Amino acid sequence: MDIRTSEGAGHLAVRATGDLTVRTVPDLRDALLKAAAEQPLGLLCDLRQVRATRESLTILHVVADQVADWPASPLTVVAHDQVLLDQLDRLGLRRRLPVAPDDDQAVAALRYSPRFLRVSTRLDPSADAPARARGFTGEHLRRWQVGEAVDPALWVISELVTNAVMHAGTELTVRVSLTSRRVGVAVGDRGTGHVVRPRDGGSDAGWGLTVVEHLTRSWGVLPRTGEGVVVWAVLDVDVSGSRALPQQPVVRQA
Do residues 40 and 11 lie in contact, with contact meaning Cβ atoms separated by under 8 Å? Predict the structure, then answer.
């Protein structure tokens, strides 16, 4: 199977060609997760040149589950073959995800997905990187009026950056995002993909991510295109009254 990722106006498109089988499903999954790790405004999965079984298409449920909390980028499927559409329908994917026959309609569908804000910055892996990340994160979260979520988010971003400086030692990408219910923070690196996870016992290894685990709704790791990973975390927050979020377009009935 040939899989290529291209960039559009605010979205990324993952285009697959060939047979989606038990052997090639991991390739499509990884391509979608790596694209999602860049937190685009939208993600297109183009299956117009794919032959697939119903079982292999369940990977779309897996990917949708993995990216639901973070990056929260809306996912749209591009498909027009009736057999494929019927398979997506039987799996419940057409009720869960927008399905469009071409790129134009897929991009149009993204406009009616839940709105979110995101900002990012790059940092050198220096001793002052955690402080700089806290300053960047706090500036935007206060501007977005997220209230009590600011302090725990600063703890979390500080721990994520410290972990990346210690174990990756590469340039870092810090991302901060907001939906109507959640604040997301994430740190991407270009290291070997090693993340020290929380562990029980007296060792200090992974202690920072234990803090992250206790302060957040969820956290996880996504692979990046090329080298490195993104470690992300999501905090619950009620900002339904915030004027910072873009207005949701209204679907008008004919």
Answer: yes
